[in-house]
Amino acid sequence: MSAFPLPPGSTIGILGGGQLGRMLCQAASRLGFDTAVLTPRPHAPDARVAAHSIVAPYTDGDALEALAAVSDVITFEFENVPAEALNRLAAMDAVVAPGSRALSETQDRVVEKTFLNRVGCATVAFAPIDSADQIPAALERIGAPALLKTRREGYDGKGQAWVRAPDDAAAAFPAIGGKPAILEARADFVRELSVIAARGRDGQVACYPVGENRHDGGILHLTRAPAPGWQAVQPQAEAFARRVLEGLDYVGVLGVELFAMGDGSLLVNEVAPRVHNSGHWTQDGAACDQFEQHIRAVAGWPLGDPRALFETEMQNLLGDEAEAWETIAAEPGARLHLYGKGEIRPGRKMGHVNRLGRAL
Ligand code: AMP
């Protein structure tokens, strides 16, 4: 068993192969840690900057043993890691942070919203849907239009269909793949916000200033942080984040996606039990960025300072937008982050740029 705080020179294991893992590896290395990555994909963005990389399915017993053997603590950068992988690691006495409850309460949208309501976080009204013929009664209760989403594995707006009338039910259910679903009341939000928050091994909580998010085709395009008028919503956002962190007995960083309503209230859309795209601005705009914060938390270090130092706008570089790297690199006040992904595909997250504004 590892003793916390982990000293520099310890190894942080990461399940998942994407850019979030890559930036976790970069932050870990700044604090003197090594990293070990387990990912099913060869040439993964994070495996190329980690000291150890293991290419195997998440549930491969030998691969999990190899990861546990080199790691002092294991975390994940991807919320759809099979629960079986974490259970197997637990059976090997590996220390995993955040724990398996972070996944079991957030992987399924019905379970997640039930959890959120239980801990006192407001959400839209919702109903579980297992077949198309359950939709009309649920629509009657929730009100039209409503959004049908797959319960599991939806991301970036995928696996969603609007239901405007009972007659839409027959088409909407197959449109999302005919899988177990949730029907959600439409949130008539005025803007979308998110709060990135961390909880340490000692229960200490740190919240970043709320950011405002703009999506394009269901994919995050821009985050402005701190959000205009953030002070007015920060207490409610922090209260929600704290209830989620404590309700999950969480160790690490998570993102809470919020709908800001016209009357000033907030609803929680969903929780991402990991570092979050809308927190990338912290790399250049905050005293301690979300990646370092997560490494600090899982390693049992004191949490870093979440204060914003600059007004920052984060723009995702999707698909061929990353081909503008040379122009962006020459822009004053712009900090370019590229993920080392070889193949450009439409909508693929290739990198991001943080543009620094006024010092705070
Ligand atoms: P999600 O995959 O749940 O994060 O949804 C992706 C995007 O769809 C959100 O960022 C919102 O823009 C929109 N959306 C999701 N749920 C709702 C809802 N209940 N009402 C209105 N818009 C929604």
For the residues shown, what is the average pLDDT? 95
Bound molecule kinds, no repeats: adenosine monophosphate
Helix percentage range: 25-40%
CATH superfamily of the largest domain: ATP-grasp fold, B domain
Overall number of strands: 17
Strand content: 25-35%
Which fold name is given in CATH as the topology of the largest domain?
A: D-amino Acid Aminotransferase, Chain A, domain 1
Secondary-structure-based class equals alpha+beta
Task: Kindly describe this structure.
This protein is an alpha+beta fold. It folds into three domains: 11-96, Rossmann fold (3-Layer(aba) Sandwich), CATH 3.40.50.20; 125-185, Dna Ligase, domain 1 (2-Layer Sandwich); 189-359, ATP-grasp fold, B domain (D-amino Acid Aminotransferase, Chain A, domain 1, 2-Layer Sandwich). It is 27% helix and 29% strand. It is built from eleven helices and 17 strands. The strands form three sheets. Strands 9, 10, 11, 12, 13, 14, 15, 16 and 17 form a nine-stranded antiparallel beta sheet that branches. Strands 3-2-1-4 form a four-stranded parallel beta sheet, with helices on both faces. Strands 5-8-6-7 form a four-stranded antiparallel beta sheet, sandwiched between helices. Strand 13 (252-261) and strand 14 (266-272) form a beta hairpin. Helix 1 (19-30) crosses helix 10 (290-298). The longest helix has 18 residues, at 230-247. The radius of gyration is 20 Å and the shape is globular. The chain starts with 10 loop residues before the first strand and ends with a strand. The structure holds adenosine monophosphate (AMP). Adenosine monophosphate (AMP) binds at residues 124, 147, 154, 157, 184, 186-187, 192, 215, 218, 257, 269-270.
